[in-house]
Amino acid sequence: MKMLSGKTVLVTGASRGIGRATALLAAENHAHVIINYNKGEDQAAELVDLLCKKGFHSSMIKADVSSEDDVKGMFKYIKENYSKLDVLVNNAGVMKNSLLALSNTELFNHTIDVNLKGMFLCTRHAANIMRKQKSGRVINLSSTAGLNGDVGQTVYSASKAAVVGFTKSAAKELGMYGITVNAVAPGLIETDLIKHIKADVRDKMLSNIALGRIGIPEDVAKVILFLSSDLGNYVSGEVIVVDGCRIM
Ligand code: NAP
């Protein structure tokens, strides 16, 4: 028996990085996975193809999570093609490092629109389905930047700190329907998101990780799997840090 047998799982931003690893692990645990993407159509198609070759069921749906119309369309597709939604992973996110003095309103709006509004829109639609089922799991991607802050990350940190407040409130509101809402806060994970970080900065960050290595997407996907499965039945309103233990 696999951990997500018979479950329908939507992962936003599943074309790359943590979202891709999460979708792959969910499928390997026998979930029906819905792979959301925005710009990465080829990468999403490649993942669907890979899952199909492994004998797993999945589908892909394009939607910009910051667009109300796109999200509405995505959930219309889910209702029409799947009779239920058991797990929503709000993973889609953007990060651009910028010192406060250099951060403009455009950067602020885009970051908040994708990282916060996107999560809000998807959760609202998912909760409508999950309330009727009287069950569901919502897992939101926060970040250690949202808990501790960092230089050059005022905007990104604000968006990820807001994810924590949203998660805790939604958990309290939706618990009565058997819906759990949790956040995962990764530290430094090897994906496209951190590609731009200079070698000397990376080395400095690495020296601050007790486990002595940068995380990989699968490290985060495993925690998301736990929260999505029966193992996480009685966990809600929590933020689980996945950062290899920051020393200072
Ligand atoms: P990534 O490799 O850059 O992937 C980002 C994903 O988000 C892509 O699949 C991208 O899809 C999707 N996305 C971006 N904008 C979107 C939009 N408007 N609508 C729908 N999808 C959109 O990033 P990652 O490192 O895997 O990050 C995943 C999540 O973990 C993010 O929320 C991030 O903030 C969080 N996180 C990451 C780290 C880290 O060190 N990597 C640390 C802490 C938190 P397309 O390519 O299809 O557009």
TrEMBL record:
Keyword Oxidoreductase attributed: yes
Gene3D superfamilies found in the cross-reference section: NAD(P)-binding Rossmann-like Domain
Keyword RNA-binding: no
Keywords associated with the record: Oxidoreductase
Ranges for domain Ketoreductase: 7-187
Database matches in Pfam families: adh_short_C2
Superkingdom of the organism of origin: Archaea
One Gene Ontology term of the molecular function aspect: oxidoreductase activity
GO BP term, example: monocarboxylic acid metabolic process
PANTHER family xref list: 3-OXOACYL-(ACYL-CARRIER-PROTEIN) REDUCTASE, 3-OXOACYL-[ACYL-CARRIER-PROTEIN] REDUCTASE FABG
Family named by the database record: Belongs to the short-chain dehydrogenases/reductases (SDR) family.
Entry protein name: 3-ketoacyl-ACP reductase
